[in-house]
Amino acid sequence: MSQKAMKTVLRKIFLLKRQYNNLPLFQFMRDDSIDAAKRLSFFPCMAHFIMSFGDLNKYVLRSEPAADKFQEKVNLHSYEDDHHWPWYLEDFQKLGYDLPTRPTDLMRFLWGEETHKNRVLMYQLTAMIAQANGAERIAIIEAIEETGNVLFTTMLDLAKTLEGRYGVELRYCGVHHHALESGHAVASEHEEIAAIDLDEASTQRCLAWADQVFDLFEDWTNELLAYARRTTPTASAPDRRTSYGAELLS
Ligand SMILES: [Fe+2]
Ligand SMILES: [Fe+2]
Questions:
Q1: Number of domains comprising the chain
Q2: How far is the CA of 200 from the centre of ligand 2 (A)?
Q3: Residue 238's pLDDT is what?
Q4: Which of 113, 140, 185, 241 is disulfide-compatible with 96, CB 3.0–4.6 A?
Q5: 128 belongs to a structural domain
Q6: Whole-prediction pTM value?
Q7: What is the pLDDT of residues 122-176, one digit of tens each?
Q8: Which residues of the chain are under the pLDDT cut of 50?
Q9: Cα–chain-centroid distance for residue 31?
């Protein structure tokens, strides 16, 4: 394998990102003929994954003391990304999803069949990261970040519309989060990452993991889309509340 094999991995990630960007969920989110609240109504469905993402950073990606300079980089990144879930809770409330729900019903929803891809995504990422060394973790983070970039970029317009409609700031869905996420995926950092050398076996593992990351996230987006299609949010605040957990209502 050529020197700087991480460049090959990054190139693959960008090709995968291009396909990911065209998935049905993102087409649905960009479809102006559908009301913005409906287009964002997958929001409660992603709770398990979003809330666990802080843990993935704190307890899975991070390893202290770092064994090498790559793991050091991973650790730094983990501190940037481990505390975004409170903004999700904030938006959850502002979007009208903070319903009086029995804890047992909520748990049935979070661990039920209709949200299982959320959990599988987290468990599989955890298994993958546990096998990866520092440099390989950087490749996995890159793949995860690019899926996030598609989601957060596509959400911007919806956030703007709903912020205007409800008179609130959506810190998870809107510019606040997007700006921070774009901050740690800037071009200069990509150049630095592209210069990482990987041996042949490591390169092959990273290429396979990149594929797997995008496959897992694709399944996740399909679960979110199916959920959004099932729910029927009403358009006007304060009656914008929608039920979540179709299964628990039946
Ligand atoms: Fe984030
Ligand atoms: Fe991030």
A1: 1
A2: 28
A3: 44
A4: 241
A5: yes
A6: 0.92
A7: 999 999 999 999 999 999 999 999 999 999 999 999 999 999 999 999 999 999 9
A8: 1, 234-241, 246-250
A9: 21
CA 50 to ligand 2 center in whole angstroms: 11
Which of the ligands is closest to the CA of residue 184? Answer: 2
Q: How far apart are the first and last CA of the chain?
A: 56
Write down the H helix ranges in 60-199: 69-81, 85-94, 103-110, 116-131, 134-166, 175-183, 187-194
Q: How far is the CA of 200 from the centre of ligand 1 (A)?
A: 32
- Interval between CA 209 and ligand 1 midpoint (Å): 21
The pLDDT value recorded for residue 247 is 47
Does residue 38 sit within a domain? yes
Contact 81, 217 (CB under 8 A): no
What is the average pLDDT value for the chain, to the nearest integer?
Answer: 92
Joined tokens for residue 64:
């202290």
Report which bound ligand comes closest to the CA of 86: 1
Q: How far is the CA of 199 from the centre of ligand 1 (A)?
A: 31
Structural domain for 51, as ranges: 6-231
CA 80 to ligand 2 centroid distance, Å:
7
> How far apart are alpha carbons 19 and 15 in whole angstroms?
7
The pLDDT value given to residue 53: 98
- Tell me the CA–centroid distance for residue 249 and ligand 1, in Å: 31
In terms of Cα–Cα distance, which of 150, 166, 154, 151 is closest to 37?
166
DSSP assignment of 5-37, as one string? THHHHHHHHHHHHHHHTTSHHHHHHT-TTS-HH
Treating both helix axes as pointing N-terminal to C-terminal, what angle do 116-131 and 134-166 enclose, rounded to 10 degrees?
A: 150
What backbone phi and psi angles, to 5 degrees, belong to 243?
-80, 155
Residue at 238 is within a domain: no
- Measured from the alpha carbon of residue 144, the closest ligand is 2
